[in-house]
Write a structure and sequence with these properties.
Its EC number is 4.3.1.17. It comes from Vreelandella sulfidaeris. This protein is α+β, with helices and mostly antiparallel strands. It has two domains: 138 residues, 60s Ribosomal Protein L30, Chain: A; 180 residues, no CATH class. It is built from 16 helices and nine strands. Strands 5-2-6-7-8 form a five-stranded mixed sheet. It has a two-stranded antiparallel ribbon with strand order 1-9. Strands 3-4 form a two-stranded antiparallel ribbon. A hairpin with a 2-residue loop joins strand 6 and strand 7.
Length: 371
């Protein structure tokens, strides 16, 4: 049936601007540093290859790797501290490794940029640790997208982090998913909940999904408040705050105009807020990548804002349903497209939370909201 995929493999709290060029490298670097244990280290060398080298400056790949070596993780790092810590490092202060050791680290000489691609994947980096000029540890990591990575050993064995967990209702295609829903008289969200119980309790699932949503919501709210220009040197001005104010306080000559595009205006401004937070290297949630991270929270935020009867239960059902769509994407060529262009619009429509859901999208038995 193939590897088991959890909704929490798709929705992962992290930072911008890229799941493959920022989040994955940070996680890999952190794990490399932790694996060093008590091994004495006097120097670390980071060599970025292929796409990580070609676009790493704009994506902050070198900064992400350094933070990872210091023991930081994408889901917990405070983005406000990154610039200060890098400035301290550039001023000659030592690098504090995840294992507590302090070493000298020269960003200019200890981070190497090699645009030559390695055979397994274009997003590659080699981390090497030395003790008095003697190599004591080295590993090659490949960032696969969505914050996932594999090291050289797993790449050589053809492993890409596959999970062999047995699910109650496994599916590989939309047809199989809908057939299971019809056979067992389950909504998609209910079927997904049963599958998620293979890893954690229902209480833990609901709690973690709400944590995911709160991170998404915070990203929207922060993006709607932020002003100024985005980093990167292109002088791109943030737009979400201004557009949001225009929606809240439209010009007098537009207040009587009722347009079907108003719905999309709200969804777009929510998505733009997340995208700008991502571009600024701030906190966000992969869905399933950084580049596509704005759509799922935007649709859900619109529903919660304008549906009077919306509840936390709806949030859980929506994210579970969106997770099913994401799993189908990941099992097909579409997920490869998501990883390569990192800008696809991926989300279940808001109607999935409301009565009148098209039968071809979900099998539903009984009364009440269809999710």
């Amino acid at each position: 049936m193939g590897m088991a995929i959890s909704v929490f493999d798709l929705f992962r709290i992290g930072i911008g601007p890229s799941s493959s060029h920022t989040v994955g490298p940070m996680r890999a670097a952190r794990d490399f540093a932790v694996a060093l244990g008590d091994q004495a280290i006097t120097r670390l060398v980071v060599r970025l290859h292929g796409s990580l080298a070609a676009t790493g400056v704009g994506h902050g790949t070198d900064q992400a790797v350094i933070m990872g070596l210091m023991g930081e993780a994408p889901e917990s790092i405070d983005p406000d501290t990154i610039a200060l810590r890098l400035n301290q490092l550039n001023d000659g202060q030592p690098l504090l490794l995840a294992n507590g050791q302090q070493i000298a680290f020269d960003v200019c000489s200890d981070v190497e940029w090699d645009e030559t691609s390695l055979p397994f994947h274009p997003n590659a980096m080699v981390l090497s640790a030395y003790c008095n000029n003697e190599l004591v540890a080295t590993n090659t990591f490949y960032s696969l997208g969505g914050g996932f990575y594999v090291d050289q050993a797993k790449a050589d064995q053809g492993e890409v982090g596959e999970d062999s967990t047995s699910l109650r209702y496994p599916f590989n295609t939309a047809a199989e998913l809908l057939a299971l829903c019809q056979q067992h008289q389950l909504r998609i969200s209910q079927l997904m909940l049963e599958n998620e119980k293979a890893w954690r309790s229902e209480e833990a699932i609901r709690k973690e999904l709400l944590t995911i949503w709160h991170a998404m919501s915070d990203s929207i709210e922060n993006g709607l408040r932020a002003t100024g220009h985005l980093p990167g040197g292109l002088n791109v001005r943030r737009r979400a705050q201004l557009l949001h104010q225009q929606l809240l306080h439209p010009p007098k000559n537009q207040r009587l105009i009722v347009s079907s595009f108003t719905v999309m205006d709200w969804v777009n401004v929510f998505a733009l807020a997340v995208n700008e937070e991502n571009a600024a290297g701030r906190r966000m949630v992969t869905a399933p990548t950084n580049g596509a991270a704005g759509i799922v929270p935007a649709v859900l935020a619109y529903y919660l804002k304008f549906e009077p009867d919306a509840s936390e239960a709806d949030v859980v059902d929506f994210l579970l349903t969106a997770g099913a769509v994401g799993i189908l994407c990941k099992r097909t060529h579409l997920f490869q497209v998501l990883k390569s262009v990192a800008k696809a619009k991926w989300a279940p429509p808001a109607q999935w939370l409301l009565p009148g859901l098209p039968r071809y999208w979900v099998a539903h038995q009984g009364s009440g909201k269809r999710r």
